[in-house]
Amino acid sequence: MTIHKAVIPAAGLGTRFLPATKSTPKEMLPVVDKPAIQYVVEEACAAGLDDVLLITGRSKRTLADHFDAVPELEAALEAKGDLERLAKVRESTELAHVHFVRQGQPKGLGHAVLQAKHHVGSETFAVLLGDDLIDERDVLLTTMIEVAERTGGSVIALLEVPPEQISLYGCAAVEPFEGAADDDEVRVTALVEKPAADEAPSNLAIIGRYVLNPAVFDVLESTEPGRGGEIQLTDALATLAGMPAEQGGGVYGVVFRGRRYDTGDRLDYLKAVVRIAVDRPDLGPDFRSWLSEFVPSLDGQD
């Protein structure tokens, strides 16, 4: 098995970031000095995925523009001898083969993934959600691909969360399996979308990284709308977990213990910007110095 295709759903309206997202896709909001979507594509490429399909919607044209060449800007930078900025401009263009398809109507994550069927075909593929940024120093997607190649099944990323927060996520019931490389590789026996805390089978939340057997497409086509009236990818994965391996079934999980930046709401987005900025070699030293002076000054303020 050789996995080289990634699918990135990016058709959401970004209503939590209005009015900034009235005319700018939320995926293009900057995280320090790069749009969030570029971090996600870079992660896919670092894991060896060189074919990227973005599932977009209306008013998302700037996503395509970002991954396209800009001859006028490049020529101007080159004429000024500004080779450093020229390299940054060209970086997104040269990352991967990036394709686009429109979802049409926002009917849920499962429906968005289903739009990739004709592009992906019969290949196992990765799905990366733009709300979760994984630190480039921590390995996740590469491990998930290895598990998928070893087992032939689908693989989801899991994160331990406080029990009182599990109702915000899809939740997995898991067990050990023979052939796992370590205790952080598990077999998924059941999945529940946003369960009540007292009904959750574990505190393992599904986060936005998946490696999916193409059998998921047939399952999605017959999956009825679930929570919120949308076609839920979690529901399709729950079906796959109970299917035999020879039919593309079986779902496994990788428990992630590295650095994850949540850009899904305004407060967590701000936290993500700060956490990434303080680790940047070019910005971090001065930014940390300023923070060390600024944060104590907040004591006693209303």
TrEMBL record:
Gene3D superfamilies from the UniProt entry: Spore Coat Polysaccharide Biosynthesis Protein SpsA, Chain A (3.90.550.10)
Keyword Nucleotidyltransferase carried by entry: yes
Keyword Translocase (UniProt): no
Signal peptide residues on this chain, from the entry's feature table: none
Domain annotation Nucleotidyl transferase: ranges: 5-274
Molecular function GO terms recorded: UTP:glucose-1-phosphate uridylyltransferase activity
E.C. number: 2.7.7.9
Catalytic activity: alpha-D-glucose 1-phosphate + UTP + H(+) = UDP-alpha-D-glucose + diphosphate
Annotated keywords: Nucleotidyltransferase, Transferase
SUPFAM superfamilies the record matches: Nucleotide-diphospho-sugar transferases
Family: Belongs to the UDPGP type 2 family.
Name of the protein described by the UniProt record: UTP--glucose-1-phosphate uridylyltransferase
Organism: Cellulomonas edaphi
Lineage: Bacteria, Bacillati, Actinomycetota, Actinomycetes, Micrococcales
